[in-house]
């Protein structure tokens, strides 16, 4: 009986220490911020652009317990000029974790022309301040520029900018994963067949892309990549023209270049080589001129652009009280010891009390993720 008493006291003391340590460290965990943006100018010579459509999807998740909020939608077609912003947030109990995800766009006329200019942006942050807590933010946007003309042609002047910063690890060393494509949507007027053609694609993780506006016209004239994260990070640009393409590719692992490619129109760019330590700054093109060429006999239905960002950890399985990715004995014990209490990580369903419902969630998901 005495041994059991000492054992119980030991468990309670350990739990109390863990709680106090969590509260103390909660003050010292900053956030991970992410942002991807592209500025563009678009001219279609024989297609008078009048309407644009914007779709968005934002999701913010925090745990424990797991709470996920979303803000998704499809806007009606808008006359130019137009702009909008949509966001969603989630906050865990005791402010142990917070996530924000936003998407934004703007389109306007270029003065004295039939061309348009604007930007598309996805941004947000994830914060995890307590042991066992976590956060994830996902922001996506999709801008559709209507055309509907046979044989339309023109160009896009495209300037990507992005950043993701992991500070103090935020209980995660995962930087944001960035994706930013440009696609032509085509239709055959006689058969009704639809097809897509990729014009440009940018993917990156663990890099900051900064631009310098030398001449003050609002557009960057020089761009540089800077490493923002240890581990496995990459940067890849693919520009497609007909059956050929140009590519920039760089993969870095623990500060050493492990993959490198600069082909096509980028062949003469000074580019890090495999085996080298990554430079503190890497010069990349400040903008990309993307030709739009509709195949003969096809209709250019629309030019579609915009992508998204995902940042933070993957949400744990339901019932993973300690946030280690596995629903096991440790999670079951935390619910049992907290049974009858209010809130906390053991309150798996977030209803304010640790009871049978929380215990059943752990039992039904026992072994998940292990």
Q: What attributes characterize this protein structure?
A:
370 residues; 50% strand; Type 1 dockerin domain; six-stranded antiparallel beta sheet; mainly beta; 2 domains
Order of helices and strands: HEEEEEEEEEEEEEEEEEEEEHH
Task: Report the average pLDDT across residues.
Answer: 84
- Name the beta content range: over 45%
Q: Which regions contain 5 or more consecutive residues with pLDDT less than 50?
A: 1-29, 166-173
Please work out how many helical segments DSSP would assign: 3
Main sheet attributes: strand count, strand direction, barrel closure: 11 strands, antiparallel
Radius of gyration: 25 Å
Give helix % range.
Answer: 10-25%
Distance between the termini: 34 Å
Structural class: mainly beta
Count of domain modules: 2
Silhouette: globular
List how many beta strands DSSP finds: 20
Short description:
The chain is built from 3 helices and 20 strands.
Describe, in plain words, how this protein is organized in 3D.
The chain has 370 residues and is mainly β. The protein has 3 helices and 20 strands. Strands 2, 3, 4, 8, 10, 11, 14, 15, 16, 19 and 20 form an 11-stranded antiparallel β-sheet that branches. It has a 6-stranded antiparallel β-sheet with strand order 5-6-7-1-9-18, with no helix packed on it. Strands 12-13-17 form a 3-stranded antiparallel β-sheet, with no helix packed on it. The protein is globular and about 70 Å long.
């Amino acid at each position: 009986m005495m041994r059991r008493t000492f054992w119980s006291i030991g468990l309670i003391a350990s739990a109390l220490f863990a709680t106090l340590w969590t509260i103390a460290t909660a003050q010292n965990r900053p956030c991970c911020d992410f942002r991807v943006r592209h500025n563009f100018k678009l001219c279609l010579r024989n297609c008078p652009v009048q309407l644009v459509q914007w779709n968005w999807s934002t999701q913010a998740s925090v745990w424990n317990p797991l709470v996920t909020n979303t803000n998704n939608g499809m806007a009606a077609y808008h006359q130019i000029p137009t702009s909008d912003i949509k966001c969603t947030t989630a906050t865990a109990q005791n402010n142990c974790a917070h996530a924000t995800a936003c998407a934004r766009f703007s389109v306007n006329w270029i003065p004295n022309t039939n061309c348009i200019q604007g930007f598309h942006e996805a941004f947000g942050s994830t914060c995890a301040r307590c042991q066992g807590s976590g956060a994830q933010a996902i922001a996506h946007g999709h801008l559709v520029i209507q055309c509907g003309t046979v044989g339309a042609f023109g160009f896009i002047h495209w300037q990507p900018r992005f950043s993701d910063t992991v500070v103090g690890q935020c209980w995660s060393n995962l930087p944001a994963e960035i994706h930013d494509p440009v696609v032509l949507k085509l239709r055959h007027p006689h058969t009704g067949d639809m097809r897509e053609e990729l014009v440009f694609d940018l993917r990156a993780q663990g890099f900051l892309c900064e631009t310098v506006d030398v001449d003050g016209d609002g557009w960057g004239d020089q761009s540089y990549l800077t490493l923002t994260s240890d581990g496995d990070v990459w940067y890849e640009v693919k520009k497609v023209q007909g059956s050929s393409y140009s590519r920039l590719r760089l993969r870095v692992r623990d500060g050493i270049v492990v993959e490198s490619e600069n082909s096509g129109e980028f062949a003469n760019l000074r580019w890090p080589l495999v085996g080298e330590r990554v430079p503190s700054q890497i010069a990349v093109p400040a903008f990309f001129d993307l030709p739009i060429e509709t195949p003969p006999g096809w209709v250019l239905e629309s030019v579609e652009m915009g992508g998204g960002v995902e940042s933070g950890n993957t949400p744990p399985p339901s019932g993973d009280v300690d946030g280690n990715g596995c629903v096991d004995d440790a999670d079951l014990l935390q619910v049992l010891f907290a049974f009858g209490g209010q809130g906390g990580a053991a309150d798996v369903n977030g209803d304010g009390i640790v009871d049978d419902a929380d215990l059943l969630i752990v039992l039904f998901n026992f072994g998940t993720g292990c």
